[in-house]
Amino acid sequence: MLHSHLTTLNAVSLMLQAFKDEDRAAQRLLEGTGITPADLGRADWRITTHQELRVCANAVAMRREVGLELGQRMHVSSYGMLGYALLSGATLGDALHLALQYPALLGTLFQLRLIEDGERVWLSASDYGQAPELAAFNAEFCLTSLKVICNDLLGQPLPLLGARFAHPAPDYQALYSAPFDCPLQFGASDNAFAFERHWLARALPLADPITHRAMSERCRRQNLEFTGRQAWLGRIRQLLQQQLEAPPGLEGLARQMSCSSRTLRRHLHELGSSYQQLLDELRFERAKQLLAEDELPIYRIAEVLGFSEPASFRHAFLRWSGVAPSHFRA
């Protein structure tokens, strides 16, 4: 199901901070996302992965190496309840195993694993399945933020034995030395960094068993609620994706979801979205796919996506991407 995951606004807020000194930064970063500056101040506000990735794409267009910078700003306190649960864990190993139980709360786009390799352990991020053009950015952001979490939990830098990345070496490779002071490999099968196994048993300075139990239980409940929202949103996206040529409208979609249109509108608003925004996201993704395949003329793509005339599709695609469909195809 396309972009069915939800995430927090933490990364978006960090991006705004990173670009705060640049002209019209907020406007440029939030362009095409449906997120407003007012949304950033709302507690427990959720956005879709599609929205977050659009902000990321806008950020990378402004500064290609921004993933490394943002990852270094993503401290353990950025993860709310999960952050407190990790900080109060008994050992680094306990904390990392807990974090890996709740990828939805981490907001990661990767499958995270601890891989034992003799006397070393690799913390691996693999199976990235979102926007390919943002693979390097997300790998840099993910691994750097995981390294910062480990440093925060230990109260000192975690010494690394090596780090590897699935993407080719970028022209700003020298910037990797700040978060990864170790040998680097590019073009690997996954993204990972390694440290000596004994660090897993290192006691955490802020360990507190009572707090840890309470926070872990709250994480369990939050994860159930969060994944439930994801499943609900995923079902909506699946229904819309199957009906792009003749969208059902809010009323029709509500009937298919066995609820009233008022209830559907309210739930979507609570998730930071709307019927039209979801429809636009799915149309945009399908449009990019069809344009890249270069098999259908643009007027047929407009019909497949439920537009009454090609001009309406061209106007919408220009609003979504900033370029005309013909330029995107070229």
- Let me know the number of strands: 7
Strand neighbour order, sheet with most strands: 3-4-7-5-6
Strand fraction equals: 5-15%
Distance between the termini: 28 Å
Spatial extent as radius of gyration: 21 Å
By secondary-structure content and strand pairing, the structural class works out as alpha+beta
| CATH fold group of the largest domain | H-NOX domain
Domain HTH araC/xylS-type: 234-330
Protein name: AraC family transcriptional regulator
InterPro entries: AraC-type_N (IPR032687), Homeodomain-like_sf (IPR009057), HTH_AraC (IPR018060)
Keywords: DNA-binding, Transcription, Transcription regulation
Question: Main traits of this protein?
Answer:
single chain, alpha+beta, H-NOX domain, Arc Repressor Mutant, subunit A, 15 helices, 52% helix, 10% strand, disordered N terminus
List the SSEs and their pairings:
Blueprint: E1 6-8, H1 10-18, H2 25-30, E2 46-48, H3 49-62, H4 66-73, H5 80-87, H6 92-101, H7 103-106, E3 111-117, E4 120-126, H8 135-154, E5 162-165, E6 184-186, E7 191-196, H9 209-241, H10 249-256, H11 261-270, H12 275-293, H13 298-304, H14 310-321, H15 325-329
Parallel strand pairs: 5-6
Antiparallel strand pairs: 1-2, 3-4, 4-7, 5-7
